[in-house]
Amino acid sequence: MDLGLENRIAVVTGGSSGIGLAAARLLLNEGARVAICGRDPNRLEAAKRELTALPGADVLAQRCDVLDRADVERFAHAVAAWSGGKVDLLVNNAGQGRVSTFATTSDKDWRQELELKIFSQTLPIQAFKSLLERSDAAAIVGVNSLLALQPEPHMVATAAARASVQSLLKSLSVEFAPHIRVNSILLGLVESGQWQRRFEARADKAETRGAWFANLARSKHIPLGRLGQPEEAARAILFLGSPAASYITGASLEISGGVSRHI
Questions:
Q1: Which residue has the higher pLDDT, 128 or 199?
Q2: Residue 65 burial (CB < 10 Å; 0-12/13-18/19+)?
Q3: Sequence-separated (6 or more) residues with CB below 8 Å from residue 107
Q4: CA distances (Å), 22 to each of 8, 136, 205, 238, in order?
């Protein structure tokens, strides 16, 4: 199926690693022009080298903290100059989970978690909205978590913040219609640097990586028996953000290996 992404302009926040980098790679393979940002300049430069090595790749990479309005606006201005003044797809992909219960979450933790999850969505949307309005097929895809619908007590702050993001995106899908579609993906457990660090800190250093991740999948009762791969989440982002999904807005697509329990 042709997703209709040839020569489209896509912006991916948190695009220097994990799901963001996988999405940028797949977008380039579909013929899109891609702008990425990230906070770590070394990781961003490594991602740029990888992406520009792809055949015919047109890539802009700029350091940006998505919680800093001035940074985000500078990134948007750079994208406008590079793209010719429009954007077709904005992928908001930033933020990690915080493991804490209500009893162990401080006021500072609550504020940091809510600020990260909400402003990593709102600041890029505000900065790129006028560029999206110049597209004939504009779309926003927010990368969110299954915690938004299925909270866990050991991640109470993250779950609450993720639910807020889901409500925000649903509201924007109505406010921005019919000109800009707004959808989200809801992630279960996907292999990432965060899980790699937990593996490296495992108690039994003799346990192999494959065995550790398999045990993790069993302990989390994932029906498909494994964690997801960044590329599997990225494929969903591409579909929802593409003209092929032209009649889908306000929707959320689970990428969870079947771990969800709600209907």
A1: 128
A2: middle
A3: none
A4: 17, 25, 29, 10
Encoding tokens for residue 55? 């055949």
- Which residues 6+ apart lie within 8 Å of 169 measured at CB? 121, 140, 142, 144, 182, 183, 184, 250, 252
* Cis status of the peptide bond prior to 178, with omega within 30 of 0: yes
Strands across the sheet containing 138-145 = 59-63, 33-38, 9-12, 89-92, 138-145, 180-187, 252-255
Assess contact for 163 and 252: CB atoms under 8 A: no
Q: How far apart are CA 121 and CA 116, in angstroms?
A: 9
SS3 259: coil
How far from chain centre, in Å, is Cα 81? 24
Say if residues 47 and 72 touch (Cβ distance below 8 Å).
no
Tens digit of pLDDT for each residue in 80-111? Answer: 999 999 999 999 997 778 889 999 999 999 99
Quick: pLDDT tens for 187-222. 999 988 778 888 888 888 888 998 999 988 999 999
Q: Would you say the pTM of this structure is higher than 0.70?
A: yes
- pLDDT digits 0-9 by tens, 41-56: 999 999 999 999 999 9
Contacts (Cβ under 8 Å, ≥6 apart) of 217: 189, 224, 225, 226, 227, 257
33-38 vs 59-63, strand pairing mode: parallel
Could you give the C-alpha distances from 259 to 18, 142, 249, 263, in angstroms and in order? 21, 20, 24, 12
